[in-house]
Amino acid sequence: MPLDSYLQKQLPGHVAFIMDGNRRWAKKKKLQIIDGHKKGSEVVKNIVKKSLELNIKYLTFFSFSTENWNRSKNEIVNLQTLLNFYLESEEEKFVEKKIKFSFIGDIDKFDEKIREKLKKLQILTKSFSKLHFTLALSYGSRSEIVNAIRKIKKNNKNLNEKDISKNLMTKNIPDPDLVIRTSGEMRLSNFLLWQVAYSELYFTKTLWPEFSSQKYILALKNYINRKRRFGGD
């Protein structure tokens, strides 16, 4: 399902993903929960590959919310193990493809070796610009906004929108043009609440492990077909 050259010019510059449905997919397949997360990580790789082909410059993945710490201890351990494996296995590819890696969120609760690998990969790829890849880990948008306001108040400044944007974790990347959420849920779940004020939202019933490159293209075509408005008719 290729895109012609005209349509490619209309593609979003930044796509953000709320990856929902790994657990449901695993239960539906009568597999372990971690198998759903493993399959979901393969989808991330496919999205990165397709985005490189389409020259989409920014991707942000909501990988682990602050609320996810309430899950079972076993699932949290498995998720951290999978994240550790992903960082190790993808490092070479990120360097080869000139992908700049970054993360947002409060990573203090993660194992030390994961924190070190996150920082290492960020430093290793900081000069790259082919694609900007951001993982949201232990991330919550409301606390991000509160923390931004606290930073501003320390400087006794008159608060304005630009001040908040410049003090968010995403200050170095543009706001998303398109947010895609899988699994049929139609909410933002405390994800980039400030940044998505003018983003197009796309909801699909497809579970994240089944979100193929073809379904990604469908979402992008849906975005292209919308007439984007910013406060006007």
Describe this structure in words.
This protein is α/β, with parallel strands linked by helices. The protein has a single domain, classed as Undecaprenyl pyrophosphate synthetase. The chain is built from eight helices and six strands. A six-stranded parallel sheet has the order 3-4-2-1-5-6, with helices on both faces. α2 crosses α3, α3 packs parallel to α4 and α4 packs parallel to α5. The longest helix has 24 residues. The two termini are 32 Å apart. The mean pLDDT is 91.
CATH homologous superfamily - what is it?
A: Decaprenyl diphosphate synthase-like
The overall number of domains is: 1
Shape: globular
Which assembly state applies to the chains in this document?
single chain
Counted beta strands: 6
Q: How large is the share of residues in beta strands?
A: 15-25%
H-E string = HEHHEHEHEHHEEH
What's the story with the biggest beta sheet?
6 strands, parallel
Looking at the overall shape, the CATH architecture is 3-Layer(aba) Sandwich
Arrangement of strands in the largest sheet: 3-4-2-1-5-6
Helix count, per DSSP? 8
Low confidence ranges = none
| Structural class by sheet pairing and helices | alpha/beta
The Cα radius of gyration reads 18 Å
**Mean pLDDT, all residues:** 91
Examine the coordinates and then state which fold CATH places here, giving the name of the CATH topology.
Answer: Undecaprenyl pyrophosphate synthetase
The first-level CATH class name: Alpha Beta
How far do the termini sit from each other? 32 Å
The share of residues in helices is 40-55%
